[in-house]
Please model this.
Amino acid sequence: MQSVVVRFVGDSGDGMQLTGNLFSSLSAILGDEISTFPDFPAEIRAPQGTLGGVSGFQVHLGKGVYTPGDKADVLVAMNAAALKVNVEHIHAHSIVICDTDSFTAKDLEKALYKTDNPFTELALPESVQVVPVALTSLTKESLKDSGLDQKAIVRSKNMFALGLVCWLFDRPIENAVKFLEDKFKKKPALIAPNVKVLTDGYNYGQNLALSVNQIRIEANTSVKSEGRHASIAGNKATAWGLVAAAEKAGKKLFLGSYPITPATDILHELSTLKSCGVMTVQAEDEIAGICTAIGASFAGDLAVTTTSGPGLSLKGEALGLAVMAELPLVVVDVQRGGPSTGLPTKTEQTDLLQALYGRNGECPAVVMAASTPANCFDFAFMAAKIALENMTPVVLLTDTYLANGTSIWNVPSLNGLPEIHPQGVLEEHKGQYNPALRDENGVRYWAYPGMEGYNHRNIGLERDAEKGTISTNPANHEKMTLARAAKVKQIENRIPYLNVWQPEVVTDKETLLVGWGSTEGHLRAAATELGCSLAHFNFINPLPRNTRQVLERYKRIVVCELNCGQFVAYLRSQFPEIKMEQFNRMEGQPFQVSDIVSYVKGC
Model:
């Protein structure tokens, strides 16, 4: 096969994320392109064996990989509930490996089956290859002399399953052993048992010649880019992008944040990087998080706060302060299903209008969006660059799919990254500096405490356009409102033109798919199947300056997004004369490529 989709599913304590990550890393080392999608339950720990506690990890590997895939070619189900929840994620010719020890009458009852035959009840097609394996019993037999307690032994069945899947795909397990040694280096007593059960799982498939087709993935002979590569998750890439930006700017990085799913991993990652000069504060709430960041910005640091949709709502007033005070600030919003606590572990693109307009008054901020786990690094870096050079808050939108998913990242050298020149002050301003002074682009000069001769006050009240003092003059307020908007607008001259992507074969020259953020891979896959073009947006406010020219070239424009139509509404407000269709999903999951294709074809 050219590419294949594998989905590991089980209870949240069954180690599906570790299993999926190990298999993904093994495939990446062998040269496969990969795209992953961890799918966590919303409950912290639902009762074992119930539908609400099912956790999953899907990986698409091979070549020509843009997404984690629609349907799984191989489903590994650790219990009856996992099979029931995920039966919709397989196709008619899938292979289903299931742990027969977890399909007892009690297991079926907890998973709300109505009969004692789950495979018949779920109406699995006869073409589905069901591979029953007593994973729990075999793991117990494998580790009976390991010295581990029964609970620890049973928890190791995911490694038996990983070994079996490595056999299925003819994957050597030597690298998996190295990963396990690194994973358990702080618990060395667990290394040997996990390696043994992994090896036994591989040998089980090899020696018994299971009655299932072994799958071989075509070698990826496409030209690889030079340099070092790594498999990286979006949250980690975001954190490293911010660190790189601080280094290039010659600034200290300060993060003030409050833990919130799914953004917390950025705080976790940055808190380990004190050796890079990173300062982190876990604040008592969302408002304190952004306010400490604004204080750090006033003091001359690269200031960042991270959150998700509910937290962005709380940060709105303080974000308005940063706009009024014209201080550089990066706000990373890792979007999730809402409103309220909603679907905290599921993905959506529903914070766009909040990022654009969710503040009182005329309060423009730059809004950007990353589109792959790997380029979260690039856009975090760019968000910091724009904030520091233009003295403005920047909202960077990612989402749960990007935050937890992984893709291959070509690790850049620091020297190869763009230069960052933070806005400073002029020598001629010394002794007469005020916070209303601007350069030729309308960007305020940045002075901070400790700079002799540049003493000033910076406040949340409207200030005089010339003197920087408090002003309630009506004409001055309008002048300042327009000045802040113009400062953001001129950033369009510093961002790339909108690029139109096309597949190798274009059969439909009149249709343009449009998307933004994390849907890029799915829309590329759909455009490839449809033979049409794709315009994907990473810069949203301001829009790329050639946006109108691109849209006017196509007779049919279909805007696809994981909300009820927020981006298409924004585009219509900017270009009311251009007709646009919309295709939306609100299911807490990434797009199914087949759904996009069916809509465009009118199926």
